[in-house]
Amino acid sequence: MTFIDGAAPPERDIIKDGSDQGFMADVIEASNAAPVIVDFWAPWCGPCKTLGPPLEKAVRAAGGKVRLVKINIDDHPGVAGQLGVRSIPAVYAFDKGRPVDGFMGAVAESQIKQFVDRLIGAGSADDINAMLDQAAESLSLGDLGGAAQSFAAALQIDPANAKAIAGMARLYLQSGDAEQARAVLDMAPPEKQNDAEIAGVRAALELAASASDVGDTRELEAKVSANPNDFQARYDLAEALSARGDLEAASEHLLAIIAKNREWNEEAARKQLLKIFEAAGPMSDVAKQGRRKLSAILFS
């Protein structure tokens, strides 16, 4: 539907009750013109009543740039079942015919506003930083899914954000999908390809590339245990550990070599250590603590 002079569509088109039968027209097809939010609710659901008013308020405030379809799952359980909705309220956002974002439960009004702003591309730098902070918190708790959702949300607002690109790529790498990690890095524009965060993931990919050649490390560990000054065995063990992602243990072995013979094999241990710092990320504990120990060795 076209509106003269850019006027917003009437509220009956912005917010409407939906059904299983009308889902294709009201959501999938309509999302080609503007993002559509679907609120799955039920009359007996207390949190649904809490979520409804601020969600409708945020949609109205967007002035027609986003629409809301409310589906009572008691009357229309079909689509909710197909999407795997197990608890309500459940909110999904569709754009160009596909789901792009969502959340479950009654969330704060500020989070609802951020959710709507992401859909219409109105997020601020503060919003992106908040999402990146949330991703970091999720990672610290081992919640990779939550971190991925936060990174994806940041990328919806700023597709060229280096931290979000690097974060998403690291998640793919941690899950064992190096190919997809490289594909995510390719999203970065040319001027950000040398960003420290992105360069760090690229270094981590290089370390992981040798993982397929790494066998059982017990033989190397036995050699090092028998002769702590077997620098080649210790170096090989560090490479094996870094390829497997144990960057902290790898760093310790390389620091041990440098402490005893920093010039060994044309400073191979120091060069490998710097690569590990880059792969771990400049603000990681591995890099910060490792650099502190390296400085203590070099300037003692």
Report how far the terminal alpha carbons are from each other: 74 Å
Q: CATH homologous superfamily of the largest domain?
A: Glutaredoxin
Question: Which range does the strand content fall in?
Answer: 5-15%
* Strand line-up in the sheet with most strands: 1-3-2-4-5
How many discrete domains?
3
Largest sheet: 5 strands, mixed
Radius of gyration: 25 Å
CATH class of the largest domain: Alpha Beta
Which stretches are poorly predicted, pLDDT < 50 over at least 5 residues? 1-10
Looking at the overall shape, the CATH architecture of the largest domain is: 3-Layer(aba) Sandwich
CATH fold topology of the largest domain? Glutaredoxin
Number of helices: 15
The chain-level mean pLDDT equals 86
Q: What sort of overall outline do the alpha carbons produce when their principal axes are compared?
A: elongated
* Global structural class: alpha/beta
Q: Total strand count, please? A: 5
